């Protein structure tokens, strides 16, 4: 048990600066910008995070899901994954730019469009390091990225507009971080894009769409809060998710490589011993993980609600006060999303990505419908709408896993070899 805790501590430590960077961006945004301006920037950031989640399906997610723990294969897939990621990021980076024009902040939108490329490339280079277990290199590149981001954000103390300084700092920091990460990785034989697509092409479109739908939940709620409520409410929602719930997301994201590797190892073991691949035995592992994610989310949210509220009132920070009130509901939502992601990983070794994509579509539609109905016509508080909308992310894939259980897929099993 202690060995597992120590092995989990390594990726959590490596994830620290990466997640704190996002929290610092939110912190600076709330302090350096007027509530209305921060609300509009938060809407652009929502588009940005939805886009980069989609881009991850082209490179980061296939490597993490199928190659975690296999250093040779991860480096082998590096070049085509980087090229494909860069192409997809360049195309989809126009979306944050267009959103920036629509909310009256064209320059921040354009800069976040450029940040889509640098952020996505940095994400895949560090995913390769995480998949190969080289956490020292992750910390080194994250330190460079974080240092440059802080230096850039210090310009908010000058007369320069903070709404442009923040995304410009992101472009530079993630770009340099990508270079540092790549320079630290060893050379290896490289697969061509055609070969990469031959191995993972059937999964990549659905992995990308799956990640897009997952990201659409939180960021879609931010959009709806801004449209059905106000830009200030959207800003408070973004602050709650990024700043108050940031440490919870840090722990979830950092533990992801370890948990995916554990689920992948279980799938390979059941593939080698089909007689042991039984419904109740195999469902026990993801069920325990889901329960742990929900319990941790609830406990963390209760603490964040009390402590965050007290600190916010002490500092008389309007955006923080509104964000603290959303802390418990947001923690439940993030806990449910983390649990749903683990369920999807478990199911991905047993069902086609095409089928799981439609499960995700139904989950998202149910979640968004509950949120819109409660926050809109029903007139429920935003906290109630958020908490209720979290339930489908566990219920729908959970019922699917139970009702449509099947042994490890031979096709996906081959991809694990």
UniProtKB/TrEMBL annotation:
It comes from the Bacteria. Keywords: Membrane, Transmembrane, Transmembrane helix. The keyword Signal does not apply. The chain crosses the membrane at residues 12-35, 41-69, 81-99, 105-122, 143-160, 166-184, 204-228, 240-260, 287-307, 319-343, 355-376, 382-405. This is Lipopolysaccharide biosynthesis protein.
């Amino acid at each position: 048990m202690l060995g597992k805790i120590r092995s989990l501590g390594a990726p959590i430590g490596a994830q620290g600066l990466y997640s704190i960077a996002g929290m610092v961006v939110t912190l600076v945004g709330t302090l350096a910008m007027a509530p209305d301006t921060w609300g509009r920037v938060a809407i652009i950031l929502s588009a940005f995070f939805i886009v980069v989640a989609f881009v991850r399906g082209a490179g980061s997610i296939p490597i993490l899901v199928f190659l975690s723990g296999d250093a040779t294969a991860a480096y082998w897939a590096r070049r085509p994954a980087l090229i494909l990621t860069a192409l997809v990021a360049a195309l989809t980076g126009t979306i944050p730019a267009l959103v920036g024009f629509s909310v009256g902040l064209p320059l921040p939108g354009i800069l976040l469009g450029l940040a889509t490329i640098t952020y996505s490339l940095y994400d895949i280079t560090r995913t390769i390091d995480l998949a190969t277990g080289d956490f020292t290199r992750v910390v080194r590149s994250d330190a460079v990225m974080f240092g440059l981001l802080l230096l850039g954000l210090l310009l908010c103390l000058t007369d320069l507009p903070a709404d442009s300084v923040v995304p410009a700092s992101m472009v530079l920091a993630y770009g340099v971080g990508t270079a540092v990460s790549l320079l630290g990785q060893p050379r290896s034989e490289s697969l061509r894009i055609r070969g990469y697509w031959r191995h993972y092409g059937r999964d990549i479109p659905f992995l990308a769409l799956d990640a897009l739908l997952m990201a659409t939940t939180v960021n879609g709620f931010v959009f709806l809060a801004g449209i059905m409520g106000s830009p200030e409410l959207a800003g408070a929602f973004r602050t709650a998710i990024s700043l108050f719930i940031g440490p919870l997301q840090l722990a979830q994201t950092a533990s992801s490589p370890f948990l995916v590797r554990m689920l992948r190892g279980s799938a390979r073991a059941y593939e080698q011993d089909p007689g042991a691949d039984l419904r109740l035995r195999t469902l026990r592992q993801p069920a325990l993980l889901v329960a742990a994610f929900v319990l941790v989310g609830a406990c963390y949210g209760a603490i964040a609600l009390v402590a965050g509220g007290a600190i916010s009132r002490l500092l008389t920070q309007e955006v923080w006060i509104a964000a603290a009130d959303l802390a418990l509901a947001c923690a439940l939502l993030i806990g449910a999303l983390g649990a749903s992601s683990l369920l999807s990983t478990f199911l991905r070794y047993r069902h086609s990505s095409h089928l799981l994509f439609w499960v995700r579509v139904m989950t998202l539609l149910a979640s968004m419908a509950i949120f819109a109905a409660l926050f809109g016509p029903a007139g429920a508080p935003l906290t109630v709408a958020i908490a209720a909308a979290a339930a489908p992310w566990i219920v729908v894939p959970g019922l699917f896993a139970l009702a449509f259980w099947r042994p490890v897929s031979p096709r996906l099993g081959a991809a694990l070899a």
